[in-house]
Amino acid sequence: MTQQIPGHELLYSGKVRGLYAPLDPVTGEQDGSRLLLVASDRVSAYDHVLSTPIPDKGAVLTQLSLWWFDQLADLAPHHVVSTDVPAEVAGRAVYVRRLRMLPVECVARAYLTGGGLAEYRADGAVSGLTLPPGLVDGSRLPAPVFTPSTKAPVGEHDQPISYDGVVDLVGAGLADRLRDLTVRILLRGNEIAADRGILIADTKVEFGLDPAQLGTGPDGEIDWAAVDPDAVDVVLADEVLTPDSSRFWRADAWEPGRTQVSYDKQVLRDWLTSPASGWDRASDTPPPDLPDEVVTLTRARYVEAYESLTGEPFRPGGHPLPAP
Which of 95, 130, 174, 270 could anchor a disulfide with 82, C-beta 3.0 to 4.6 Å? Predict the structure, then answer.
């Protein structure tokens, strides 16, 4: 059920997050410059929102993203303007800039697994990029690769696209900037995570542009190909390098050729595709409820990822953080 927040109007409820517009207490009009981004405890897998939430997941995603935004600040500006949010969503929400989001899911891979592995097994390539022969599940790639996909509505599947497909969507200038930033974010993430015993196999990030810099309103038409990425801020948005948007593996247990020990929601993915769940992924039926032991283990892995990376104990309600 979508949460109601006094003084805010719900604009969008996605797989995991909700977007709310702050309202002027006198006029009731929306604040045109910022939004309240709230992370719920909902969890998605295989393009389904599961019926069973993961306790404290929204707080982990929000607080870990804030930590990463700080680590990545020299690579790209981010969308957070304040962590001073309503008490009802403390610890799992931030106020962010209103942006026009680019119509591309930006994915980078340092290791081969998941959907990338399935593509590779089919034709030796991922998103149109030919990879060396003989790779297996968990193989480290010679260098991180940009493997974007489409943005699909809730309930539909994102589809891999080639780099040329990104150029068709947003033009050569923005496509080059998105590829560069996505790969650099994964490289920086792995530089930091390696010292903490974690490998980041792959990650998905999203970017947006400030409509004021584009000279358009929040809903105006945009000719993406005409945008000069050197003349506007390409802003890192949504979440970054979290257990929902990335695959985190235990470095000391990494062994190509098998399923890796992960800190992310792979735990529940594995259960859903096991005989124990009784669910047929190829069917149109929704996934079943998660058993308590899978919920407990998934939450523990999320919290362990946060604490391992930040070096700080996880506090479900959050704690005061300076606005970036």
Answer: 95
Structure-token match 């606005």, residue found = 323
Global pTM?
A: 0.91
Question: What does the pLDDT look like over 155-202, one tens digit per residue?
Answer: 566 789 999 999 999 999 999 999 999 999 999 999 999 999 999 999
**What residues make up the domain containing 289?**
264-310
| pLDDT value, residue 324 | 31
Q: Cα(313)–Cα(234) distance, rounded to whole angstroms? A: 32
**DSSP one-letter code for 89:** G
- Rounded to the nearest 5 degrees, what angle is found at the Cα of 107, between the Cα atoms of 103 and 109? 170
Q: What is the pLDDT of residue 79?
A: 98
CATH of the domain at 232: 3.30.470.20
Q: What's the CA gap between 68 and 288, in Å, rounded?
A: 33
Q: Which of 74, 78, 49, 93 is nearest to 286 (CA)?
A: 49
Residues 6+ apart with CB under 8 A from 264: 243, 244, 246, 247, 248, 301, 302, 305
SS3 39: strand
> Whole-angstrom Cα distance, residue 242 to residue 71?
13
Indicate the number of domains in the chain.
3
> What's residue 68's pLDDT?
98
Q: Give domain status of residue 258, yes or no.
A: no
- CA 97 to each of CA 80, 212, 213, 295: distance values in angstroms, whole numbers, following the listed order: 6, 11, 12, 33
Q: Which residues contact 71 (CB under 8 A, 6 or more apart)?
A: 188, 192
